[in-house]
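Render this sequence as a predicted structure.
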Amino acid sequence: MEPTETDSVVLHASRRWWNKVDLRRGETPWLTFASKSSAFSLNGKDYTIKRRGIRGPVEFSHAGKTIVEVKGLAFDYAGKKWAMKGTGIFSSRVNLECDGRVVGEFKRPGGFYFGTKVDIRLPREMPDEIQVLLIWFYINVFVVDAAST
């Protein structure tokens, strides 16, 4: 089941060679952060993204308190199981699943663009900081992996 306009927030991310990610909600600028950074600020709060060990889980936290721990590309949040899953070997599209149901997507539009562009659809009820975390993961895991193969 594909996410629809009514239950989704539509975001657009673009990354250029200077490694800044610009996020927009529709056409409205929303947030800019360094793509390789392990921290970002949102609504006056500072968040960090930190991997424990070489292959350990990624911890997403605010003020030293863990919000989400991501193992592989899956995590538990708000009593539900979430996962980011690629749709195919040669596809740059990634689905966001919640309890086994597709509720969001990340996809790179066709055409030439200097840098990276991503169109994103995420559940409307998902908090802003979790949306940014997922976009950070897509850009730093899936886009990097696709570029290195």
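Summary. Confidence is low (pLDDT under 50) at residues 1-5, 145-149. The chain has one domain: 8-36+73-148.
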